Amino acid sequence: MRRIRVARTAENHGVNADAIVQVRDLTVDFDTVEGRIRAVDGISFDVLPRRTLGVVGESGCGKSVTAQAIMRIEDERTCRLGGSIVLRRDEDTLDLLGLARDSAQMRELRGGDIGFIFQEPMTSFSPVHTIGNQIIEAVRLHFNLGKPEAAQRAIEQLRDVGMPNPEHIMSQYAWELSGGLRQRAMIAMALVCGPRLLIADEPTTALDVTTQAQVLTLLAELQDRHDMAMMLITHDLGVVAAAADDVAIMYLGFIVERGPAASIFRDSMHPYTQLLLESLPSLTRRRRGALKAIGGTVPRAGNRPAGCPFHTRCPSAIWGVCDRILPGPTQVAEHHVVNCHLHDPQ
Q1: For 37-71, what is each residue's pLDDT tens digit?
Q2: If both were cysteines, with which of 67, 115, 171, 218 could 190 make a disulfide (CB 3.0 to 4.6 Å apart)?
Q3: 295-314, pLDDT tens digit by residue?
Q4: Based on C-alpha coordinates, what's the Rg of the chain?
Q5: Number of CB atoms found within 10 A of residue 59's CB
Q6: Where in the chain is the domain with CATH 3.40.50.300?
Q7: Is the model's pLDDT at 249 over the cut of 90?
């Protein structure tokens, strides 16, 4: 029997005075040889102080593009942004989409108020400059410090992220470090200017399971120590279960479900979320039993199906509805919203 749902609402789409970053109706379009393609389509969410928002979905769903839009590191020649990304600071409130990408103010915010951990540090660090030189440069871009003072701050930050012998690491190159140490160095550079928001884009993907756990533990400790908000981009719901307070599930440029992590994991509503959860390994699964997989693949953004974007892979699709009509948001619990025709108000 279908449970009765509360009425559809655009809950949490208004002004939230507590949010550090408030994204509203964000669109990201790319100009390609095939025409203009929409990679992110009207998404809205908040990143709250001292909480971690986990943004989850398969590759090609728009997670990293969303993070890059917040940082304003898009390619202005081919990328078009719409909507608003509001950053609240102690002294002012800024719509980041109202700032020029390469303006002095945006450069101050990027790395200052908002830190970024890239997915693969090896391609993010310069191979011809030492770790120390790169962190020192980041410090001096944001603070009026001499090189000795900036170097001392860099050493302290490396020590803060648990780097062994940070003085020695300062003289090392990225290619001389293990994957785990490179990730710690990347975290140190992202945090050295004291950001209020840390965006971590797949920070554990290239690491072994033990190192993944260490990095997640480190991020949680640093968040508490520095009183930060965090946005964690990942395809792995297991990582989100270990680290996130709030969750946004993305599919093909849309947020299909969002809410507190406890509510999402206890009572997921969207078929896509449910299938992602069912694909996780379980200690109760039979030893020889195969993991469940989601049938099909994520379509290309330029080949998005009509109606609900997930209906072509959804085992519960209502034909004649899901293939024609894009579902709107329905609030199913406090702060828990799902975009799915299965939960439309009756």
Answers
A1: 999 999 999 999 999 999 999 999 999 999 999 99
A2: 115
A3: 889 999 888 999 999 999 99
A4: 21
A5: 10
A6: 1-113+196-283+290-346
A7: yes
